[in-house]
């Protein structure tokens, strides 16, 4: 099927069928990605040590910061590609692809240079101690050297998915997971390269996947392909890409600030191992969050295309189905976190203190997990239809306006418990705000449909 035909299906095929077609590959890819992060942590915990898990957790803010710049380009571009395909504006969609490549190269190189120049001060600011910084430093040096590859791989995968090839985007992600999962234990247990071996396995896996993506986009029969004349940055495209990508960008920046506050607070009240506990809790909860993100990625091209085509009834329908599916996922995460937290924590480490800290933290963190799926889908929904301001408001409501103040205030009264309880409280408050905004938007869609 031609790429034009593949894209036009977004406006004609049944919504349930489309969401399954687009979301299942994305869910598989995101779940696989989350699983290999978990597997990395398990290898590190058993092959390097409990303190190495804390060192890895120290790198989370810097990883979030790198992801922020990656999503600024990737998410913004994929949304624009979906809308432009819906409008049959194939020339602009082609130039968006070229601008994705140029922006990712420029931003990736700049981020790498600045981060490497100030790496130790950055890691200490993020909560590192003399015991954890060797692990954090060794890991991040390798990751940063491959940062351009990471940005390019994620950016091209976003465009691939938005252009009507979710299965190929899924395959690229699974490819990195399989290669990384094979290489990481070899580098740790055979070559004894420690935490650097895990980072090297990640970068090598992404290099191989990026090579395959480039080959796909170089095929002459593709509507969107890499060719001469599309790489010059165009102001209006860059502004639109960045404008739409600001919502996930700010969300990742806020996530960076939040992890810094969490790391510093846990280190102050419970010590370095508490940071490792947060690292384990983050890996477990993130598995379910990534599944919801997969649903969101499946929803994005469908919502974007139909919004561009002014088919508001279909936009509403895909939103509702995605919310139901996301709620089922996060409710499952809630049950796992409340019923078997010790069991899942033991998969990462044999250190009993770390297991106990992780189990308690997980029980608290997933307290309101059943409703967080709704909040995530709503934020992504506004982003998918190009309503960047509303998406930013929703992203910042949980992260900045609610969670950060709670992280600063509650520990003064409850110590480490105040840090853990800040997360579910912010989930509840942000979901209420999302419900109000979504209700108002659905009313507007209904009025437009009638008109």
Automatic annotation (TrEMBL):
Q: Name one GO biological process term.
A: response to antibiotic
Tell me any Pfam family this protein matches. MatE
Q: What is its main location?
A: membrane
Q: Where in the cell is it found?
A: Cell membrane
Q: How does it sit in the membrane?
A: Multi-pass membrane protein
Which controlled-vocabulary keywords does the entry list? Antibiotic resistance, Cell membrane, Membrane, Transmembrane, Transmembrane helix, Transport
Q: Which residues form a coiled coil?
A: none
Q: According to its record, what are the GO cellular component terms?
A: plasma membrane
* Bilayer-crossing regions: 18-36, 97-119, 139-157, 169-191, 197-217, 237-262, 274-296, 317-340, 360-379, 391-413, 419-439
InterPro entries named among the record's database cross-references: MATE_fam, MATE_MepA-like, MATE_MepA_subfamily, MdtK-like
The terms under GO molecular function for this entry are: antiporter activity; xenobiotic transmembrane transporter activity
PANTHER family given in the database record? MULTIDRUG EXPORT PROTEIN MEPA, SPORULATION PROTEIN YKVU
Which protein family is named in the record? Belongs to the multi antimicrobial extrusion (MATE) (TC 2.A.66.1) family. MepA subfamily.
Instruction: Give the protein's recorded name.
Output: Multidrug export protein MepA
Upper taxonomic lineage: Bacteria, Pseudomonadati, Bacteroidota, Bacteroidia, Bacteroidales
């Amino acid at each position: 099927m031609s790429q034009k035909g593949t894209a036009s299906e977004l406006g004609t095929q049944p919504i349930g069928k489309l969401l399954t077609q687009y979301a299942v590959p994305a869910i598989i890819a995101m779940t696989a990605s989350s699983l290999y992060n978990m597997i990395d942590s398990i290898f590190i915990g058993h092959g390097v040590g409990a303190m190495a898990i804390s060192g890895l957790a120290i790198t989370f803010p810097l990883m979030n910061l790198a992801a922020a710049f990656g999503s600024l380009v990737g998410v913004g571009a994929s949304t624009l590609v979906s809308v432009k395909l819906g409008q049959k504006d194939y020339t602009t969609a082609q130039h968006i692809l070229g601008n994705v490549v140029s922006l990712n190269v420029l931003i990736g190189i700049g981020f790498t240079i600045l981060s490497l120049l100030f790496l130790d001060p950055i890691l200490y600011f993020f909560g590192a101690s003399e015991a954890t910084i060797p692990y954090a430093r060794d890991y991040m040096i390798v990751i940063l050297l491959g940062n351009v590859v990471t940005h390019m791989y994620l950016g091209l995968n976003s465009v691939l998915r938005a252009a009507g090839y979710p299965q190929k985007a899924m395959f690229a992600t699974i490819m990195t997971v399989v290669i990384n999962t094979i290489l990481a234990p070899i580098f740790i247990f055979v070559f004894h390269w420690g935490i650097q071996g895990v980072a090297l396995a990640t970068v090598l896996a992404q290099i191989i996947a990026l090579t395959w993506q480039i080959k796909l986009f170089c095929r002459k029969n593709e509507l969107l392909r890499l060719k001469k004349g599309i790489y010059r940055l165009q102001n209006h495209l860059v502004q639109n890409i960045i404008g739409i990508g600001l919502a996930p960008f700010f969300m990742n920046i806020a996530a960076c600030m939040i992890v810094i506050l969490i790391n510093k607070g846990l280190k102050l009240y419970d010590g370095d191992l508490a940071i490792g506990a947060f690292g384990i809790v983050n890996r477990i909860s993130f598995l379910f969050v990534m599944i919801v993100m997969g649903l969101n990625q499946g929803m994005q091209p469908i919502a974007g295309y139909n919004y561009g085509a002014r088919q508001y009834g279909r936009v509403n329908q895909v939103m509702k189905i995605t919310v139901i599916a996301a709620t089922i996922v996060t409710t499952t995460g809630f049950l796992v976190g409340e019923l078997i937290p010790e069991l899942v924590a033991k998969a990462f480490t044999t250190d009993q203190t770390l297991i106990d800290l992780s189990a308690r933290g997980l029980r608290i963190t997933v307290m309101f997990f059943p409703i967080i799926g709704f909040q995530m889908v709503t934020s992504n929904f506004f982003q998918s239809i190009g309503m960047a301001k509303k998406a930013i408001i929703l992203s910042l409501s949980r992260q900045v306006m609610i969670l950060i103040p709670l992280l600063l205030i509650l520990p003064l009264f409850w110590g480490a418990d105040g840090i853990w309880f800040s997360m579910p409280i912010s989930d509840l408050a942000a979901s209420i705000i999302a419900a109000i905004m979504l209700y108002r938007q659905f009313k507007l869609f209904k009025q437009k449909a009638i008109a």
